[in-house]
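Entry:
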Amino acid sequence: MKKIISTAAAVLAFSMAFADVSVEFTQAGYLSSDRGGNSVKLDVNGYDDAKKVTGCVVTEISNEFAGVVFDLDPYIKDVGRDYVDNASNGMFDQYYGWVNFMGGKAKLQSGVWTSRSVNRMKKDAGSWENPEYEKFKPGVINGSIAEDVTNLTEGNLSTQITYSLDNGYAKAAIVSSEYYGSSTSSLMSGFALEGGFNINEDTNVKVYFKNLKDQEIAFAVFGESTGLKEGLDLVAGFTAGNAKTESGFEYALDVRARYELNDKLAFTTMNNISSANEDYALWDMLSVAYKLSDKTKLTVTGEWYYRDLSVEKAGALSIIPGITYSPCDGADITTGLILETTGWKKPSTSSISIPVVLHVAL
């Protein structure tokens, strides 16, 4: 009884001290899959082969002055599975706190997080994992310096300050990294800068600069517009990275767009061509979303990726038809098919998977 009273008192104290408390939960699994040559049935232990987690729990507690966020990725070790044990970092994918000052113009944030301010055109992505809607982030997709260039902190322990201007913003961060590699130098962090300004109410420009390792620099500039045509959102950007090592120079061009034809039908496309070490990679994505009703949405997404245009049988094609059902606000269930073929120009392998994703936000 004392524990129950103590818990209730803690909840009441939080409610009084903070204006907003939110919790978000995601659980994913396979009804069946033969991805990677492994056949599984009724696998509730996650469907993202890279992350090896069963789900995600995000808790945010905040008011207008400060807040904290905890993003917990629980895992289950099954017999016969070599799962990544991330207990060494407390199973936290993200954890950070922030505080506003100077009348709300400045914000200081510290912890571990990933944040990409550029519009990635994911409005219709729903609960699909990244490979099933956005295989790559903006930047050099086959690079080692400027990959995922708009992710300022790259998920490392960081401290960042943001200052809001009347017509834009500026960010500066110190990011924990092995700046000098194996050197005995006392410098334990790299540096990252970001700035944005509005050209008019429909168009803005964002610039990124990262120097997270000695003699390695990444730079990008992206323009976003919503005023070219009613219902059309457009993003285009150029990324470059350079290092005084064998990695050399790399660059990429990104173009993304979403066109809402009407209240029910929308089209999204993402396109990237990248060059690193004189190898060219190409990625194109096209997705169609259609609202059957206020509770049901259909999507069909196609992704084409060629990791090295100079090599035969280096292409992969995915077709992902899916359906999302939202029985109430904040909850949705997503399922569909993941159809993959690899080895293009003449595909040599293929797979069919049926994932199920439950997402609840309170």
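The radius of gyration is 22 Å.
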